[in-house]
Every structure is written in C-alpha cells, then in structure tokens.
Amino acid sequence: MASTTSDTAVADTKPFDIVATYNELLRSDADLTMPIAAIEALVLLLTHSASSTISETLDLLEKSTAHLKRSIPNPIGLSAGTDLFQRYLITTLQRPGQLGPAGDFKAIRTHLLSNGRLFIRRAKESRDKIAAFGRGFIRDGSTILTNGGSRAVAALLQKAADEEGGPSAVRFRVIYVLSSTSQESKHPNEEPEGMETVRALRAKGVPVSTIPESAVAYSLGKADMVIVGAEGVVENGGIVSRMGTYQIGLLAKAIGKPFYVVAESHKFVRLYPLGQYDLPIEQQVVEFKSEEDLAEERKQQSSVADTNGDTPIKLPLCDSVDFTPPHLISALITDSGVLTPSAVSEELIKIWF
Amino acid sequence: MNRKLGLRRCVGRLWHHFFFHKMVEPSNPAPTAPVSPPVSSTPEQATLATENPPQTLPIRDSKPTQPTGDAPASTDGATDKPLTAAELKKKAKADKAARRIRQKLEREGNTTGSTAPTPSVGAQPRQPNTPKKDAAGTGSAQKGPRAPPPRRGSGPVAQTGSVLVEQKKKKDDKKVAVFGHLYGQQRRVTVGGATKEVHPAILALGMQLVDYTICGSSARCVATLLAFKRVIESYTTPMGTSLARHLTTHLSSQITYLSTCRPLSISQGNAIRALKLFIAGIDPSTPEASAKISLCEYIDSFIREKITVADQVIADSAAQKVQDGDVIVTFAGSSIVKHTLLLAHNQGKRFRVSIIDSRPLFEGKSLARDLANSGLDVQYSLVHSITHAVKDATKVFLGAHAMTSNGGLYSRVGTALVAISPTASPSTASSSTRLPMPTSSYPWTPPVSLAVPTPDTHAPPAPENKKGGNRTPAPESPVIPHKTSSSPLADWHNTPNLQLLNIMYDVTPAEYVDMVITEMGSLPPSAVPIVHRMVTNL
C-alpha cells in the first residue's frame, strides 16, 4: 500500500515541480516570505495532485517537502511554513466530525485548500499587525539602527513615518547598515539589499544614513535602539537572520542598546540551534585556503562546467545567515504581540500540541 | 563574564552560609566528611567577617564598634579583650553555657554537631567570640541584640547540663547542622519491623533501593510500578469495602515502607500519583477481576508511554545534536545519555565521549564500560580533573532526575559543577530528561544554593564504603559500616569531631542549561513550567 501510494505520488509530482513553483512564487511577489511561499506551493501541489485518501495526501506532502528542503540552499525559513502546514493538515484531519477521518475526503480536501488560502492571506496581513504593535517603540527623536532587507522592518518604519502625519512631522532617524557582501557577489552593480527601503523612507522625509557593516560599533552610540528582521525564529527565542545580525546583537548588548526583532509568527521554526555551527545548512563562510588550494580550485572551475550533482547545495556568502542567541534579544515584535525570547517556545508549543 | 561573576557570587554566598552556621568548615579537604579543624578555619572565618560587613552589621545596630573589633580578635585567636563591657555582659550567660559544654565534650572527646559552640572545642582562646558571632548569624530575626549566643537546642543543654540531654546530643551530633534539614527520617536497613500488609515484592524492592541495586530515577520508577503490579495481582478487596476505596490505602502502606527505605524519587512520586488517580477513577461497581486487569494494563501502558517510548524519542532527538568531531562530556551514568550516545554511534557519527565521575556512586564506571564495549572512544576521569576533561568539550549531555519549575536541573550531585565548568569555553550544556515534573510544593532555596533541601538529597554515607564490599546491616544506624579496617571511615561513629555529609543531588541553575530535551521536543529551560502545565492537563 505504502509503496504504491509513493509511486503515484512521484508520478504526480513530475509534471508539477514544487521547487520551480516555490521559486516562481518568491520571484513574482516581492511581499511573499519564504514560509508563506512554501505553504502556497504546497497548496498548489495539493490542487494539482489527484490524491484521494488522507494517507496519500500526507505522504505526498511529506515527500514534496523533503524534496523542496533538499533543493533549496537555506531551508530554515521555508521549513517553518511546511511544518506549519503539515501540522495544520494533521490536526484538521484528526479532528472528529464531518471533516474528520470518517468524513467525506472530497469535503476535507476542499476545506483544506480554502483554509490554506485563508492562512496565506492572513499571513500577508500580519505585517500590518506587526507594524501596529511595533509603532509604539519608535518615539519622537529616536534613532533606529537596522540592517538587511527585511520587509517587516520596512513596513514598520514606513508605518511609523506615515503615522506621524506627513513629512513635516517625522521625528525619527534611521541608520541603515548596508551589507558589503552582496556587493562583492556576482553582480557588483546590483545595489545592496535595503536600498529600496532607504529610498522609500527618504521619500517620506525620514533622514536616513547608510553605513557599512564595519561602522556599526562606531555608529551605535548615536542610535537609541536596534530593530532587525529575521528569517526564522527558533525555539529558544533566538533568530536566524542575515549574516551580520549576530554581531550587531553582540554590539548592542555591549553598548546597552535594546535589540528588537521584527518577525511574523509564521516564521517560528521548530529548530534548536546550540550555536552558529549547529544550523542545518552548509555555509561557506570560514574557509581556509592556501595558494595551492586556490590554484587547484581555479583549475577545477575551468575544467568542470558546473555539474551540480546530488551534493548538498552550499549557500553563497551573500545569502549566508547567522544565529543570534536569545540573550541578546530584548523583545520580539510579532503579530501575536510583543514577546520575550522565552515566550517563543510557549507559542511554538501552542501551535504544535 | 556574567557567568563567572555569577559563580563567584554564588560561591561567596555559600561561604557566607558556611560562615554563619560554622558547621561545615570551608577549608575542609574532604567535602563529604566535614571534620572540623577549628584552628585552620579560624583565619578564613575572620577574613569572611571582614569581607561581609553589610551582612553582619545590621544585626548589631546597638553596638556599632563591634564588626571591626571582632574580626582581629578571632584572627589571632588569643584575645577576648577587645569586647566592650556591654558585650561582655550580654555574653555572660553564653560563656558559662559554652564552657560547661566544652568541659563535657572534652571529657567525652566528642563534638556536638548541632550546637553552636562546637568549633570552640579545638580553639579555646577564641571561644568567647564564637557564640557572639553565631548570634549575629542566626539571631537576626527572632533574637535581637540581646540574643543568647548558643543557637537551637544548645540552650537547654547548657542550663540543665543533664546527662540525658547530653546523650541525646551525642546521637544527633553526627549530623552536619547546616544540612540538618536534609537528613529526614532514619533509613531502614532491614525488612524487620515492616507492617504485615507490605507485600514481599515491595519488601524486596525496598532492600534493593536501600543498597542502590536499583538506582536511577527511571529504574526506580519502573521497579516500583512493576512491584505495585504484583501487589495488585495478589490483592483481594476485603469485605465491606470497594477496590477503589481500599486499594489506595493498601498501596499507601507499601509506599510508606518504600519511602523509609529510600525517600521516593520525584519520578516515583509522579507515577504513584498517576496510579492513585486511576484507582480513584475506577467505578466501584466494576468486578474486582476486571478492575485489576485494567489496573495492570494501565501500569504497563504507563511504563511504555512515559518511560520506554519517551526514552526512545528523547534519545532520537538528542542524538541529532551529536555531530562528527564532537567531544561529548557527560557526568556519572544516566541511562538516557547512554541510549543517546549509543544511538549516535550506531548512526555512524564519529565523536569522543568524556565521562566525568565522582562519589558517591561512581555510576560513570558502568557507563564507560558499556560505551567502550560498544566501540565508542571513551575517556573516564574523576571530578577533580574536570578542567582537563572539559577543556575540549563541545557539548555536555546530562541526565536529569527532575526539572524544577524555574528551569533548574535536579540531578546527581556534581552535575552542577560539570554544567558550570564548560562556560569558559563556548560549549553548550544540554540535559535530556523525560517528564519534567516540578512540583509546586517544592521547597525552594535561593538560586545560589547548589544543594536543594529535599528529603532524598542526603543519603547515608554507606556507598563510600562500598569498595570494602563486606557490608553488614546495622539496624540502629543509618550507615552501613563495613568490616574492613583499612577505611579511615570504618569507625566514624566514634571518631570525635567527625561528621559525615553525603549529598546525593544538586540543582543546576537554569542559566547553565542551554537546552532541555524532552519527549515533547527540545526546549529552553524557561519552557519547563509550560510543559509541566501541559503534561498535567493532559
């Protein structure tokens, strides 16, 4: 039974490529976060597949999730979404009643799909909710240091700028830390992440200063607080975020500035990293090379024309992440309220049990 | 940095603790056997007195000059001159009392463990200071400035001086007064005197608990449940009562017997509570046979769900945390840590294990043997070489006896030391536990305390003598003396100035625990109360 279902599942997924769908979704909608894109891809998968039993559906879901996670270099963010969706499916299916295991599967399926879409819509709205919660943190005359290209942070800052009632009333300033790694990447002409937000804020009359990452310690004295985004919020209340966030957190702690994280609650991941090197991804950050190694690498690059085998995909430096431990975080501003890091595990337990 | 400071503060407070009770001498070379060497400890106490003026000052508001005059006096240990007239007057009674006790004690060559004047036995010249300082330490709340110096039961002794009380003292004085609350009731060492209701299976279990044949929180829990199963199987409801009503009381007498053998572990307590709840829920109209069957099934499923399967789940998720090249440090012998490491090894991970072991039970030996037999790379060291063992540790795995509701890790004594040590290096401590079961009635001590006062914290010092093997039960004493005369502790009951303290558990503060691996997933220690709430609500 199990083998036949898996066979059909594989046969079904062939025309529908979940990885391509996921990437396409992310590309098409700039407002989409990774977990939401993953959920949307899974919902699309379910609409495309013709599964007719619960176990078939779950099996298909599990296989596609595993496939998706394998194919994406940094699956931390999307795993929050896939886990959430899977959990949601299972709890819905276990619930007694018309939609329970005894009910009509067709009805269950349509219910799942419609609810999945509802979930996506709600998740998109959560950014506004966060902005509403976080607005109180930005006071008159304050200076905020931020980094990366987090849309939640951008939404929060823009909301704060709007709320003050037009350009004349804006009374906060922003120090924007621009990543230098993205400039070193393949596209040297590409503007660093976050420039869009910088432009938008400047258009609203918010004075913005852009600094390189090396100037964070120097500039922190002028900032009143640090607000950063996150790719994933892990179980102990720490965050997985753009490379460089950890050092900002450390510096903020050392200088005594509050360090706030803005993240949607669907970014909570059931992951418990114990340190920087305990993340479930491969990153090429610290690499020791001698001249010999470099020469060999060059030779290999010229001879082998990118044969991407089954080896785990390594994350390029510009997309690398680090882990900011919970003791550096003052509070997490989420759509379910402002939480302390220790409250994250409670929220996660609530979702999972 | 913070942790280091915290540790220092904690040590400082412990010192303070010792100083005021003057029972355990800080300079003691053997931590489990606080033989009091009063002379060597004197300077240390004096320095402490000068170091902690804020703590000594408020008590002596009536005589502002004292704290400074006091310390030197005890340092050179030869003068009682610097005392003011007021103080001399205040201490008149105390001196008399203390002197009387001292004379008696000298005659008998014995120390009074639970009375203040004890340390004065060896250091007569500084004796007048001793009770005064003691009054400062203990009399803050109830005694006031004119407090009579000797604390607790020593007053009546001094006044009556009767031989009767003296003998009672002799019996008590083998207890270290600071930890007096840990001793609890006397341990049973034979089956003699057990009530007739106690089932033979329970009698046997009790003896196994007494001599640590069954040791470890889950082993004790499983053994207890299995013994209860036999009790239930051979149980017949007496006429005129129902099973639901009577079986609980029948079990209670078994439990009482067990708890006199060794205080019940928290896991046992939780299992018993669950079982009693189930019994209470049995419909009185159920036929006895079917009720017994359902009870036995309940016990089986309890063991399966809460222990066997939970162990597997925990070992599974803990093994995921083991990575190639890790150096895993563990302390003593936890069955769940053993499962984890074996599982990780079977998964083909290459890592090294460093086992730190210590008294009282040397449980790490069997763990080291088992792991080495399975082909793991094992290093075994005792706790005194902890800095070396911990130096290149990458992770610390600790088994938990229980988790306290503030996230503290309650485990075999020495665990706190291991958990605190790696903070110098960027390693992580994680503990794996099942059923994090803090109890609301838990008697909390300040977080600095590494020894929490629960009844089971103190075990009779028997295991220390274990290597002598030849143990014979001695009904009168909590200690099992052994006959080999080679041990310096062979005749400790009659050795003057010798008190034994054999603490079995300690509590690691939550900040030293990075992760708690439970069957409900990995959690930060701060989530322990949440899990507890969920588990009890289910």
Can you describe what's shown?
The complex is a heterodimer of chains A (about 350) and B (about 550). Chain A has 13 helices and 10 strands. Chain A is of the alpha/beta class. A 7-stranded mixed sheet of chain A has the order 3-2-1-4-7-9-10. A 3-stranded antiparallel sheet of chain A has the order 5-6-8. In chain A, α7 (about 150-165) links the parallel β1 and β2 (about 175-180). In chain A, α3 (about 35-50) packs antiparallel against α6. The longest helix of chain A is centred in the middle third of the chain and has 30 residues, at about 105-135. The relative contact order of chain A is 0.12. Chain B has about 550 residues and is of the alpha/beta class. Chain B has 3 domains: about 1-175, no CATH class; about 200-310, Four Helix Bundle (Hemerythrin (Met), subunit A) (Up-down Bundle); about 315-440 and about 450-490 and about 500-535, Translation initiation factor eif-2b, domain 2 (Rossmann fold). Helix content of chain B is about 45%, strand content about 10%. In chain B, the strands form 2 sheets. Chain B has a 7-stranded mixed sheet with strand order 3-2-1-4-7-9-10. A 3-stranded antiparallel sheet of chain B has the order 5-6-8. In chain B, β2 (about 350-355), α15 and β3 (about 375-380) form a beta-alpha-beta unit. The two termini of chain B are about 40 Å apart. Chains A and B meet through α13 of A and β10 and α18 of B.
